[in-house]
Amino acid sequence: MRLTGQLRAYISVGIAVSIVGVFSLRSLADESAAPRAWDYTLTQQGPTGVLNLRGSVTINGNAAVSGATVVSGNSIATGSDGHASIELGALGRIELKSNTAVTAVLTPSSVPLNLDLCGSVTQALPPGVAGLLTDPHHNRAHVKVISGQVHVKYDGKEKDLITGDSKTFDRLEEVSTAGGTTFRVSCGEHHEALLLVPLGLLALAGIAVAVEHNVVSGGAISPSQP
């Protein structure tokens, strides 16, 4: 009878250990199947870029410094003395001149841009990386294709541009490309060449006035005497 009591005790302990072991293994299996926080963070992290700048540049309204990381959804803006370039590695490059702002979306195969403030933005996209620049303000903008091809939507119309094409559009809506393209969208700066014409005329007028003044004041050459 005494031996039977010890045997029962051993059996009870064995059953208890087995039950604990089963629940422990089940718990470990559930933990390995569930997504971990750090795994989720790594899988959710998308492409990033590196910002290089001079002058006044902000990211999401905060002052930025060269070497700052740009992630998808960031808004980058340049001040009146600002210039920024965003190096995106395999996704290409974005360059902003002064008084320009864009919001960039970075995916493994595309870099859409929202033109928040139209100054001058140049986007270089490698082959296979699509681009879509959207202008929600429908600015009167100049589009220049440095290489490749783009499709422009403007004022309810559409037009394709290829390498070397340069055209001003009223009420720009969007510029899209399948990749392998470098293009520039600007507002205002393309009129600088036109301003050179009246400035040149003013300079010529100034020279003419100076010459006339010199002649009247006695600067003209006297006729030769026999």
Secondary-structure blueprint:
Layout: H1 2-33, H2 37-44, E1 48-54, E2 57-59, E3 62-63, E4 69-71, E5 75-78, E6 83-87, E7 93-96, E8 101-104, E9 113-117, E10 120-125, E11 131-134, E12 141-147, E13 149-154, E14 157-162, E15 166-169, E16 172-177, E17 181-186, H3 192-219
Parallel strand pairs: 9-11
Antiparallel strand pairs: 1-4, 1-6, 2-3, 2-5, 5-8, 6-7, 7-10, 8-9, 10-17, 11-16, 12-15, 12-17, 13-14, 13-16
Structure description:
- The protein has 226 residues and is of the alpha+beta class.
- The protein has two domains: 2-34; 47-189, Sandwich (Jelly Rolls).
- Helix content is 30%, strand content 36%.
- The protein is built from three helices and 17 strands.
- The strands form two sheets. It has a nine-stranded mixed β-sheet with strand order 3-2-5-8-9-11-16-13-14, with no helix packed on it. An eight-stranded antiparallel β-sheet has the order 4-1-6-7-10-17-12-15, with no helix packed on it.
- It starts with a helix and ends in a 7-residue tail after the last helix.
Outline the biggest β-sheet. Answer: 9 strands, mixed
Low-confidence stretches: 27-44, 190-217, 219-226
Look at the helices and sheets and give the structural class.
alpha+beta
Distance between the termini: 161 Å
Number of domains: 2
So, CATH architecture of the largest domain? Sandwich
The CATH topology label of the largest domain is: Jelly Rolls
Beta-strand share of residues: 35-45%
Report the mean per-residue pLDDT as an integer: 78
Question: Helices and strands, in N-to-C order?
Answer: HHEEEEEEEEEEEEEEEEEH
Helix content: 25-40%
Number of strands: 17
Question: Helix segment count?
Answer: 3
Q: Sum up the overall morphology in one term.
A: globular
Strand order across the biggest sheet? Answer: 3-2-5-8-9-11-16-13-14
